[in-house]
Amino acid sequence: MSYIFFYFSFQQKTKILRFLFLLGVLPLLAVPAKAQTMAALEVAQKLQNTYEKAANLAADFSQTTTTKFSSRVRQGSGTMVFSKPGRMRWDYRTPDYQVLISDGETISMYFEKNNQMIVSKAKDYLQSDVTYSFFAGSGNILKDFDVNEPDSFMQKENFYLIKMTPKSLHPHVSSLHVWVSRDTFLIMHMQIIDHFDTVTDLYFDNIRIDTDYYGSRKIEENLFFFSPPAGTEIIKQF
Hints:
With 238 residues, the protein is an alpha+beta fold. 17% of the residues lie in helices and 41% in strands.
């Protein structure tokens, strides 16, 4: 990606908001599914309760995306952390090193390949970011989404599966499928479908709730500050 203006076009802003959805290929294995014995609304409420109670959350992630009009598949993987109130950090290790980081007031996006960092106010970005609302516990699933049980062929063993459709038009999300661990009520797989039928899959592993560390670093205020290498072009959007 290359951003060279302080004021972005609609398409550029859309690319920024899709930063979290930099993807590639991970096969979704077909496995026999257990009967979904808990109602979708009950699963959604327990999911909401899990993330509302957590002070922080850290995990490894992998991502894939496919588009309706292209055979190209993109991929990304790395680690992420959320810490209340309003802080998050995503470190992309592949395919290129990138950092998305917010202290709740500003959000910074560093692209090593382009030698650039974009800095903007966090409020509007975070309100439109579905993943932030889930993991920060700032949204209300039953208030913000219509929740239903999807087709049974999409179910996987040891997971509850719910389909979520925004009650109000969302600029980047048409619908969501969320696979929830039966044991922990944590999100293990989230599939996001946008208005152009682009499908984004996020897979989470090694999830830690209320942990003290993000890798080798202690989860504290300075974790949510990123100082780019000397010579990095800083683009401010405010």
